[in-house]
Every structure is written in structure tokens, then in C-alpha cells.
């Protein structure tokens, strides 16, 4: 399961390279997946395999995107559509159409986030939309009284904005604890994704699913290593 944030055109970032993937590199990566033995599957399909309901018949990968940056619409979605690849975007419910005000250093790209109308149009075109909290905090650091507002309320607001169910959650910064995990489950989400680096089928449960982050520095060999070999060791 792969994790992206920004996909666009920008110079090499001075820091936080894991937030960026150049548009040209992204196009090469998707072309690589298209000709590789891997099958790109939806998060729903992967979840069915992770929970033992319907095993996958071939090595597979899921494409996920956190935050909902505006550059996704221009640079990533047309490439995904051209290949017929499913993907899930995790949006920050109370920041639709605003800027990513949680960033702690100047952004190397455009930090605008897609608005509700754009997300609805992409969802109508086949993009799966999940929740990435209401305001992108570190959930484990919040008092219990505020956690449900970031989790359950975010799901409700996104569903109202999109006019469709929101089934999946991704922890901002990959930050969570057992209470946060349990609140995500209680809110009605079918799954929650972490930033733990491992194969998704090794998830402890449906609410602690690992992902492999893709970085600006990932060339062709490193991308192949991350998608096919990095976590193939047996345990």
C-alpha cells in the first residue's frame, strides 16, 4: 500500500522530501506499475483480502493520497485515469478549499487543498474519498473529549459535503494510540491507515494498516524496491 501527498511540478524541496513526488516521476511510476506483475486494486478490495474475506489472486498494490492537495487534480488524476488505476484520497474535512495550515515549514509546492465541489467531481469520476480528520492534528495528543470531533464529526461533514459514504480513515502524521484506533472503529469507518512501513497484509487489524511512503528522492530502482522487494522477507 503506497502513500503520496503532493504530486506536481516543483524544484527539489529543501526538507520533508516525503511530502512530494514530481509529476514526471509519478508518471514514470504509474507506467512502471502498468507493466509490472503487480495489480493496482482499490482499498475496498485490499481490505477484503486483509480481513480474510476474499484473498487476492496476484501481487497487488493500493494507491493512497493524503491531505487533498489541489495539485492532485491537475497532475495525478489524469495519469491514474489514463491507466485505469483506482485510488483513495484522504481529505481534511474542515480545510476543504483552504490551505494546509498544519505545515511547519514553507511548502515547496502549492499548499491549497481541493474544495468540496472538486472532490465531488473526482468522486463522480471514480476517486474514492476517505477522511483524514477534521483539522489534521496529532490525534494521540488530544484530550479524549476532542478526539471524536476530529474523527466521527469529520466523517459526517465529509459525507454531507460529498453526498456519499466515507468508509476509510488515515491517521494524520500516522499518529494514533489504542483509544484513537477504537474511536475510529466506533465512528463506523471500515479501516484506518497508518504510516507504519510494512506490507498491508501484515496489519494487526483493519485499523492499523501499514503503508509505504513515496518520496521526491525515489528513483526508478528505489521505487521498484519499495513496491516489490522491500518487505518481501518472511517473519
Automatic annotation (TrEMBL):
<keyword id="KW-0378">Hydrolase</keyword>
<dbReference type="GO" id="GO:0005576">
    <property type="term" value="C:extracellular region"/>
</dbReference>
<dbReference type="GO" id="GO:0005975">
    <property type="term" value="P:carbohydrate metabolic process"/>
</dbReference>
<dbReference type="Pfam" id="PF01522">
    <property type="entry name" value="Polysacc_deac_1"/>
</dbReference>
<dbReference type="InterPro" id="IPR002509">
    <property type="entry name" value="NODB_dom"/>
</dbReference>
<dbReference type="InterPro" id="IPR051398">
    <property type="entry name" value="Polysacch_Deacetylase"/>
</dbReference>
<keyword id="KW-0732">Signal</keyword>
<feature type="domain" description="NodB homology">
    <location>
        <begin position="59"/>
        <end position="235"/>
    </location>
</feature>
<dbReference type="GO" id="GO:0016810">
    <property type="term" value="F:hydrolase activity, acting on carbon-nitrogen (but not peptide) bonds"/>
</dbReference>
<dbReference type="InterPro" id="IPR011330">
    <property type="entry name" value="Glyco_hydro/deAcase_b/a-brl"/>
</dbReference>
<protein>
    <submittedName>
        <fullName>Putative hydrolase</fullName>
    </submittedName>
</protein>
